[in-house]
């Protein structure tokens, strides 16, 4: 009798689940929106969940299949999502109608994800953003330039031996080491020495968290697509032991400052000042403690991964394109001559071709393949639905809205011969012809990348230093274009990025 009751209960639960999934799968059909037909459980994300497709490929595929529509629906597992294909509409949502799209469209339950990137777009996000902005803009770059350049020179030094022997180098990992050290020195005021120490604790811990496996990808897909269900299943983006590492690291950084009375206008100082101000005002749950650790983690994980990928792809592209490499180097040499061999922010301004090279790199390989927003106030998309008056009224929390940055960057309608590396697309006269909101490696609007200016200064400084000293060549392991790793959330190379490096004026290595 108990067995029959259990079986009946299980069948009733199964029937409820199927009805629920069917209702979810018919979400966009019922709203009359052009959409991709979803599978019952996986929606349109089966290949993505199984690590056969990266996020960029998933969205490029949806972008292609929804051609002809400004807006279309698809499903991430059983969660309905919206794809914005039309750049003008993307600009409207991200910039002009920001008040209706203040969130990221993902509700993190992890305390360690209370960072500026994931915070909901409320007063806490605004306070944090306004407090940090001065440190990341042109004033911050002027203040930090000396240190950024010092780090670039350390990288040049580390590469001396491989360059003398004309060795093969995997630049993605090398750039990650470089960026971790730069973040340590410039944002936290500590020396991680990851470039020198191949057994570095910080590198090992952060690599362990990023490393992709089949199961991890399924877990991440659940956490991103259906966070409530993932939470009910006891899943977390950041495992308690990983969170503990970042708490410990943050406490060490703060203690180091207090012990040595370090006072510099860097990120940690800005955050500590904000926490102290809130504590003085008697505000509980302020920006100290867990919030501080969350920002440290954001920088060491997300910030590091994005800058390292952009720099590594750039070196890889220059190795595969000798003419563009030579043109960049000639301009670096000329600018340095003009500035008496002193690299400065003014000297960087005389190297516009490096900006073009970096822009074209970020067009081909935007580290974040999409920009996502959550609807925070009901919003009407006119002319989107085939039903009734043709309007689609999106309710708060109904579906994340995704702008497929990578797909727009590779659409031949906006960038002819999209797979070719052509920095001249970004020459001032050509760049002004680009359709607005078709090029957005740093996102757009009030939630655009906080680190944009500093990242560009760091990347340009590093390129100038490397090109003035070394030459880059393809190696037998250079794969061009390089395959992407479908297990990673951010755009990353699957098998690393291999090049050969040699001192300048040497004959190319065979
Ligand atoms: C090449 C390097 C980088 C690229 C391509 C990049 C790209 C992006 C993109 C696409 C977004 C989302 C923007 C949007 O939703 O409109 C973003 C957000 C953000 N990025 Fe970056 N990023 C880079 C480096 C960094 C670095 C080094 C930091 C370190 C501080 C950083 C901090 C942030 C923060 C805090 C946000 C969230 C801003 C907010 O929600 O208010 N990024 N980034």
Automatic annotation (TrEMBL):
Q: Does the keyword tRNA processing apply?
A: no
Q: Cite the PROSITE patterns for this sequence.
A: CYTOCHROME_P450
Task: List the Gene Ontology MF annotations in alphabetical order.
Answer: heme binding; iron ion binding; monooxygenase activity; oxidoreductase activity, acting on paired donors, with incorporation or reduction of molecular oxygen
Q: Where found, per UniProt?
A: Endoplasmic reticulum membrane; Microsome membrane
Q: GO cellular component terms?
A: endoplasmic reticulum membrane
Name the principal localization, coarsely classed.
Answer: endoplasmic reticulum
Pfam families named among the record's database cross-references? p450
Q: Which cofactors is this protein said to need? A: heme
Topological category with respect to the lipid bilayer: Peripheral membrane protein
Q: Which InterPro entries match?
A: Cyt_P450, Cyt_P450_CS, Cyt_P450_E_grp-IV, Cyt_P450_sf, Insect_CytP450_Detox
Q: Which UniProt keywords apply?
A: Endoplasmic reticulum, Heme, Iron, Membrane, Metal-binding, Microsome, Monooxygenase, Oxidoreductase
- What does the entry list as the binding residues for heme? 449
Q: Which family does it belong to?
A: Belongs to the cytochrome P450 family.
What this protein is reported to do is described as:
May be involved in the metabolism of insect hormones and in the breakdown of synthetic insecticides.
How is this protein named in the record? CYP450
Which lineage is the organism of this entry classified under, starting from the top rank?
Answer: Eukaryota, Metazoa, Ecdysozoa, Arthropoda, Hexapoda
């Amino acid at each position: 009798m108990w067995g029959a009751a259990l079986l009946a209960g299980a069948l009733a639960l199964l029937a409820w689940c199927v009805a629920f999934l069917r209702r979810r799968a018919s979400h966009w059909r019922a709203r009359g929106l052009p959409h991709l037909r979803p599978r019952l459980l996986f929606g349109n994300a089966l290949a993505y969940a199984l690590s056969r497709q990266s996020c960029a490929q998933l969205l490029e595929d949806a972008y292609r299949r929804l051609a002809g529509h400004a807006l279309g629906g698809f499903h991430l597992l059983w969660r309905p999502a919206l794809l914005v294909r039309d750049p003008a509409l993307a600009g409207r949502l991200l910039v002009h109608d920001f008040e209706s799209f203040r969130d990221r469209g993902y509700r993190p339950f992890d305390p360690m994800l209370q960072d500026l990137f994931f915070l909901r777009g409320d007063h806490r996000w605004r306070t944090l953003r306004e407090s940090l902005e001065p440190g990341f803009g042109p004033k911050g770059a002027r203040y930090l330039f000396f240190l950024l350049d010092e780090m670039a020179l350390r990288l040049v030094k580390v590469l001396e031996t491989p360059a003398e022997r004309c060795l093969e180098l995997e630049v993605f990992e090398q750039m990650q080491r470089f960026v971790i050290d730069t973040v340590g020195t410039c944002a936290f005021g500590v020396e991680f020495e990851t470039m020198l120490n191949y057994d570095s604790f910080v590198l090992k811990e952060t690599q362990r968290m990023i490393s992709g496996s089949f199961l991890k990808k399924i877990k991440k897909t659940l956490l991103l697509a259906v966070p409530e269900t993932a939470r009910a299943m006891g899943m977390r983006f950041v495992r308690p032991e990983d969170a503990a590492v970042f708490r410990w690291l943050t406490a060490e950084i703060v203690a180091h400052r207090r012990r040595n009375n370090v006072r510099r206008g860097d990120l940690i100082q800005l955050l500590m000042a904000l926490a102290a101000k809130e504590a003085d005002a008697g505000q509980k749950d302020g920006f100290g403690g867990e919030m501080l650790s969350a920002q440290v983690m954001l920088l060491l994980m997300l910030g590091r991964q994005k800058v390292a990928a952009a720099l590594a792809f750039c070196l890889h592209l220059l190795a595969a394109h000798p003419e563009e490499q030579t043109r960049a180097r000639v301009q670096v040499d000329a600018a340095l001559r003009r500035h008496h061999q002193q690299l400065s922010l003014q000297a960087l301004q005389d190297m516009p071709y490096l900006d073009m090279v970096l822009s074209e790199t970020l067009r081909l390989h935007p580290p974040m393949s999409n920009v996502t927003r959550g609807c925070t106030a009901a919003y009407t998309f006119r002319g989107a639905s085939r039903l009734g008056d043709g309007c689609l009224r999106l309710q708060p929390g109904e579906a994340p809205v995704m702008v497929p940055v990578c797909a727009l960057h590779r659409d031949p309608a906006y960038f002819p011969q999209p797979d070719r590396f052509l920095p001249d697309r970004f020459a001032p006269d050509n760049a002004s012809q680009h359709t607005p909101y078709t090029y957005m490696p740093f996102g757009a609007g009030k939630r655009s990348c906080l680190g944009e200016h500093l990242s560009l200064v760091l990347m340009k400084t590093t390129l100038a230093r490397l090109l003035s000293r070394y030459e880059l060549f393809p190696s037998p392991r250079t794969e061009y274009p390089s395959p992407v790793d479908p297990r990673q959330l951010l755009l990353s190379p699957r098998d690393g990025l291999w090049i050969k490096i040699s001192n300048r004026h040497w004959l190319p290595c065979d």
